[in-house]
Every structure is written in C-alpha cells, then in structure tokens.
UniProtKB/TrEMBL annotation:
Domain called Pre-mRNA processing factor 4 (PRP4)-like: residue spans: 35-86
Source organism: Zophobas morio
WD repeat boundaries on the chain: 208-257, 258-299, 300-341, 342-383, 384-417, 427-458
SMART domains: SFM (SM00500), WD40 (SM00320)
Protein name: Pre-mRNA processing factor 4 (PRP4)-like domain-containing protein
Length: 464
C-alpha cells in the first residue's frame, strides 16, 4: 500500500516510467529461457547481440538475454519464438564441437601427408633408442661415478667467467648461436646483418647481407659444419618484416627465401632431420616448411596472441611453441594435433627449450620465472624465480641436459644445475639487457648477446 501511495504522489511521466519498469520486470520473470549455454548463445546471435562479453559467465549471459528479451514487443517476441524453434539440435551440436576444439586445423596437402609419414618413420626409431638410453641412465643415476661426474661439472661451471667480448654491430645483437661443431658463432643484429665469428678468437669470418629490416634470429642447420656441404643450405635467419632468408657458407648473399609471413618472424628452428623448418609469426600463428622444396606445409593457429619461440623435440616427433598469451602449446607433428597446453606463466612466454630426453621442457617468461615441465605427468614440476626482469632465452646443455642457462633483461646470464635446480653461477658483464644465450655442443663455451651491441663468450677461468 505504501508503494502504491508513493507512486500516486509522483508526476505523470515518472509514474508511467516506473509502472513500465514494473511491467518489464514482471515480463522478464515470466519468460521461459533455456538453461543450456549453447542455446542461450544461439538466441543472443538471433537478436544480433554479442554472444559473450568479457568476464561474463553462463549465469550472467542468461540474465543478459532475459533483460534484452523483456525490452522487446510482444510481436517481436512471437517472431523470435518461431525462429528459436527452427534451431535444430544438430546445429547446436556443431557449435558445441567448435567450442570444445578451440584450435582450427587447416586442410593439408599431399606434401604434408608425405612429411608426416617421413617424420613418423624418422622419430619412432629414435624414440625407441631414447628409451633404451633413459633406462641405462636411470640404472646409473645413483652410482658414485655419476655423482662424481656431476660434482666435477658443477665445479667447472662455478669457475666460468668472461673469456672474450666482441662488438658485433652498430645496433643490438638480437641472437647468437654456436655452430654444430662449436667452431663458430652466428649473430644477427638490428642493422639487418648476420655475421659469422671464429671461436674462440671472435674474429669475423663472414658478413651475410640480404635483410632490409632488423634481424630477429639466426639458426644453423643441424648438420652444418659437420656433414652439410658449404654450398648447401647451412643457415636460416628471420626479420621484423616477415622475411626468412636461407644461406650457405660460401656466399654473402642469400640462396633462397621463404615468403608468406605478413608480420615479424621472431624465431626459427630446424627440425632435427634438417628437411623441415618451423617459424613463429606475430600474426598469432606458426608455420612448418619443407625447406628442400621451399614450400609451406602447415599454417597453424591456436595461440590467441603473437607466437614468439619454437623448439623441436630431439627425436623429431613433437614441437612446442610459446606465445605472448602466456601459454605454450605442444604439437604432434605426426598428426598435426595440439596435444597439450602448458599454462602457469602469468605473462608472455619468451623462451622455450626441450631437454635432450624429450619429456622435460624449460620455459622462460616476462614474469621473471623459469618453469620446468614434466610432459609425462602433464604438469609443471618446478618454478624458479631466477631473475628480476624478463627472461629472454633458455637453453639446456645439448648433450645430456645436466645443466641449463638463462639470460635476462636484468643484465645477467645464470647457470643452473638440472639435477636439483641449484643456481651455480651468475655471469655479469653486459651493460644492457641480454637478448639471447647458447651453449656450445663441446661444452667449452657459453655465448650471450645484448642490446649493448656486443656478444660475449664465457668459459672456465683456468686461474681460479
């Protein structure tokens, strides 16, 4: 009675608006809505409203639909009811499958089928051999010889210091990596040049000219300087303008290119067989190439933001990509499916690397942490708050993975034991943030490159 009395005291326009609001609320309560979220989305789509809003859960979405329908006329509601009845169960089922999938897979070519069959035949024998070696390692893990070996190696790593420093260009040195025989270092810089340097003297061997923009990354072919002919493909580099160039060890100009990237290609990596190449692009996709035919086999989406780093498993079966969406995705190259999503970092994942055993992954992030992931258990096994700024690069020791290194924007390169994740040594000499690091296959040197235009070699100090 008091409410009715208050309404009568209001002016005409206000009273009419309030009564209309009461009628709308009554109408909203009487509406019969589906409880299935997919059906709610279908009705929102039918009335040309967004099917989802940021931060909106299923309950809030249903309430939003109720409020929108309560504002419509009786005629419009009757028309919509007829439209809603025409939505078949099969259409809802298709929508449900799309929601569950999350990742869109492109139709492949006959060349892709050939590549998948080759990768399966390449990886399965190596996976079998890897298991045999793993069992032997487990049997010797607690032996005195193994413990002594670890102690000696850690003692050597604790003695690492700056062995050599070289100005590599006029702008930031974006990437540095050792050749497979550890005799040289390849660097890329923001002037658009790639250079080869002799180890350990750091004398310039060759300058590779061809990029028109800042170079992001450069990688050696897996058999370069070991079996690969100097006149064949030995190096691949990528740049900010999406250009990917192919190089040999005889010419200073590229011998080929991979075209099709519309934006920055931040990282490239060779498949262990040397026949294929993976590239990551800032269009939120990564690509898989047949470099012998220079043909794109896969253009794969899945990340919600830019894809930054990529690394192939050593037996060639899997590849992992990291993105600025704070996630890593693990892909099976034999089927093309995303088989695992690594979620745990709270900021962009800038670096990723496979352990030689193939079932441990190391990641570094803008959240200043490193994470070790056990793929067989499908979880993060350990988190290392190792740096005070962005972790730019991580690398396992390439032969046995007994230790790993990480570089950061906090001006340091750190060496870690992989047995108990102890911090062994901090290498400091750069004056600007460090962009990359690598370990020589002969385990004699570590290299790092920085915004200070230099790359540095780190090795055991014999005098200590």
């Amino acid at each position: 009675m008091e409410v009715l009395k208050d309404i009568k005291e209001l002016e005409g326009s206000e009273r009419n608006a309030l009564l209309a609001d009461f009628e709308r609320r009554k109408k909203a309560r009487e509406l019969i809505l589906p409880t299935d979220d997919l059906a709610v989305r279908a009705r929102l789509r039918e009335i040309e409203e967004p099917v989802a809003l940021f931060g909106e859960d299923k309950g809030k979405r249903r309430d939003r639909l109720r409020n929108l329908l309560s504002n419509l006329s009786e005629e419009r509601l009757a028309q919509l009811e007829e439209c809603f009845k025409e939505i078949s169960h099969s259409e809802i089922k298709v929508t449900e499958e799309k929601e569950k999938t999350g990742t869109f897979y492109f139709r492949g070519s006959p060349l892709l089928k050939e590549a998948r069959l080759y990768i399966a035949s390449y990886s399965l024998p190596r996976a079998r051999q890897k298991l045999i070696l793993e069992r032997k390692h487990q049997a010797n893990q607690n032996s005195k010889e193994e413990a002594i070996l670890h102690q000696e190696e850690q003692k050597l790593l604790k003695n690492y210091s700056n062995y050599c420093s070289q100005v590599g260009g006029e702008r930031a040195i974006s990437y540095s990596t050792f050749s497979p025989d550890s005799s040289s270092v390849a660097t890329s810089d923001w002037t658009g040049l790639c250079k080869l340097w002799k180890v350990p003297s750091c004398d310039l061997l060759r300058t590779l000219r061809g990029h028109k923009n800042r170079v992001c990354c450069i990688k050696f072919h897996p058999t370069s300087t070991i079996q690969q002919s100097p006149s064949a493909l030995n190096l691949v580099s990528s740049s900010f303008d999406g250009e990917v160039l192919l190089w040999n060890l005889e010419k200073e100009t590229p011998i080929g290119s991979l075209t099709g990237h519309p934006l920055r290609v931040s990282r490239v990596d060779f498949h262990p067989s040397g026949r294929y190449l993976g590239t990551t692009c800032f269009d939120s996709s990564w690509r898989f190439w047949d470099i012998e035919k220079q043909v794109e086999l896969v253009h794969q989406t899945g990340h919600s933001k830019e894809v930054y780093d990529i690394c192939f498993q050593k037996d060639g079966a899997l590849v992992i990509t990291s993105g600025l969406d704070s996630m890593c995705r693990l892909w099976d190259l034999r089927t093309g499916r995303c088989i695992m999503v690594l979620q745990g970092h709270v900021k962009p994942v800038m670096a990723v690397d496979f352990h030689p055993n193939g079932h441990v992954v190391l990641t570094g992030s803008d959240d200043h942490t490193l994470k070790l992931w056990e793929l067989r258990q499908r979880q993060c096994s350990y988190t290392i708050p190792g740096h005070t700024n962005t972790v730019s690069c991580v690398k396992f020791e390439p032969n046995h993975g007994r230790y790993f290194v990480s570089s950061s924007y906090d001006l340091s390169v750190k060496i870690w034991s992989n047995k108990n994740w102890l911090h062994l040594k901090t290498l400091e000499a750069h004056t600007c943030k460090i962009l990359s690091c690598d370990i020589a296959r002969d385990n004699k040197f570590v290299v790092s490159s920085s915004f200070d235009r230099t790359f540095k070699l780190w090795a055991e100090d014999k005098e200590l």
